């Protein structure tokens, strides 16, 4: 007979092993469009099934399970979005998460291949092919944009840049351009360049045009492995890019950014960063494993790695700013000396 402690431990392991169920229910509801179908109304399972085009019996099972998780309300065999779902999971929700969760669906598929990836050391190839499609690029960039757009104004404020000078910002691998949008909105004299791969350029241009900032934010097509980044920049952002790069290429990119900055200019890094033990913070340690599934040889660094690379590139003063928990991670700022002797 197992004692209480052992029974609790078994329960703990069982919950860990079944965590995928909750994730799958939420992600499937987003994928088939349950929350949009129930936005602002009550409907039966058959009505939802007809609206979103899925099997009626399966829809009822899914809606009941979603209600059990608090994603829906159920009354007299009719369903409606819970306050939580209505506030965050419909396509039209302000600052909503629906597009971002479509991205999580893609990652979910990849996590399903973890055992193979661990055996072979390689990311799942099939998903990689799917992800070369134009549709995937849009899903990926819009999903990242939805993650960035709520936090970007806070980061723009935190950077406390001078407001009375015409600053030039370079956002390397800037994706959607959401951080440049927030900076341009916060600092009226600032202009920006988003440096991106060709397939991302039209999506970034579309998002920037929607924000009405095409005159102040340009998108420069290029590959930072082969192309120069340009010159004359006062601030360079490197957000979520180093993690996807092979380790030996990360210091090279930092060096390239150093060359693109004016004397006195600063680099701002926002990447997940591990503590030296590499097992904490927990979300970062888990994200490091996701790099095995989503990149060829990406990975996470420790702050010691960055200090070394920034120093070798020639950056001097380096400062780390912790971001509040609702944003997570931190900003690392480092400055290029304003005169050659400072280096
Ligand atoms: C994880 S996303 C980060 C996007 C954005 N900086 C953010 O934080 O939301 C990485 C971006 O780097 C871009 N990227 C990757 N390799 C690149 C390369 N060789 N040259 C230019 N951009 C690249 C990708 O297209 C992608 O948009």
Describe it.
The protein is built from 16 helices and 11 strands. The protein is of the alpha/beta class and 343 residues long. It has 2 domains: 90 residues, Winged helix-like DNA-binding domain superfamily/Winged helix DNA-binding domain (Arc Repressor Mutant, subunit A, Orthogonal Bundle), CATH 1.10.10; 200 residues, Vaccinia Virus protein VP39 (Rossmann fold), CATH 3.40.50. The strands form 3 sheets. Strands 5-4-3-6-7-11-10 form a 7-stranded mixed β-sheet. The chain has a two-stranded antiparallel ribbon with strand order 1-2. The longest helix has 16 residues.
Key traits:
binds S-adenosylmethionine, 343 residues, 7-stranded mixed sheet, two-stranded antiparallel sheet, Arc Repressor Mutant, subunit A, 2 domains, alpha/beta, 16 helices, Rossmann fold
Structural class label: alpha/beta
Which H/E pattern describes the elements?
HHHHHEEHHHHHHEHEHEEHEEHEHEE
The named CATH superfamily of the largest domain: Vaccinia Virus protein VP39
* Percentage beta strand: 15-25%
Summarize the SSE layout with pairings.
Blueprint: H1 4-17, H2 19-32, H3 34-37, H4 45-52, H5 56-68, E1 72-75, E2 78-81, H6 83-88, H7 98-111, H8 114-120, H9 125-130, H10 134-149, H11 152-159, E3 168-172, H12 178-186, E4 191-196, H13 201-210, E5 217-221, E6 233-239, H14 250-260, E7 261-270, E8 273-274, H15 282-294, E9 301-302, H16 303-313, E10 318-322, E11 330-335
Parallel strand pairs: 3-4, 3-6, 4-5, 6-7, 8-9
Antiparallel strand pairs: 1-2, 7-11, 10-11
Helix pairs in contact: 2-7, 4-5, 7-10, 11-12, 14-16
The structure holds S-adenosylmethionine.
S-adenosylmethionine (SAM) binds at residues 144, 148, 173-175, 195-197, 200, 223-225, 239-241, 244.
